Description:
The protein is an alpha/beta fold. Helices cover 43% and strands 14% of the residues. The protein folds into two domains: 3-35 and 221-236, no CATH class; 43-218, Rossmann fold (3-Layer(aba) Sandwich). It has eleven helices and eight strands.
Amino acid sequence: MSRTNRFLARYATIIATSFPKTKYLPKDKKIIQTGMPVRSTISKLFEQKYKAPDLHSEFNILILGGSQGAKIFAQTIPSSIKLLSQEQQKRLSITQQCRSDDVDVLKQEYKDFPCKVTISSFFDNMPEIYEKTHLVISRSGASSVTEIAAVGLPAIFVPLPTAADDHQTTNATAFKEYNGCIVVQQADFIPEKLAEILVYMLNNPQYMSSLSDNIKKVAITDADIRLADIVEKTVIGE
């Protein structure tokens, strides 16, 4: 819990949490895990069966840097792609969200690569993008990991090291414990490490499918209903 929520918790009747393990919860309050609400256009994708790419088909990677754009993604990911073979690069279709200042720089970095690349500081069609994605590389803020789990996508999470109380590592760990994702600390997020992971994923469709199945086991897609039910029962005194 953030400092603000810790302060406000003393006035709460019930505390709803997004994750099963949450630090700094008060011991004298009723705690219920509801999950974090996600847009219905995204949560409905949970019903879509993940189809891992075979060894020769297009492999779609979505890169999300969060609100701060994750400059390290712009620095590291093109360098890691360059370490792949030409045949592996040709299979890739990359959609990368980055800081506005990095858009032109990234386009230049990718210009000689044989893979397909789409770069923008903002995407307003996330459900459509999620629907065709095979792998997400992302920060691990609460809303990001919740959405990715709701869609059931394999993910490489790179926690923001300066996040308060290192909460992004805790968020990602909630899914790693179920073998639903890979977590790479920023200090270890170097081109050689990422290239090694990507090569393994490109060559192991069954592993990709298992990541999808496992992250779905932890996903909560009806958090809005759970939360509304708690509010109604609290108000009417049940």
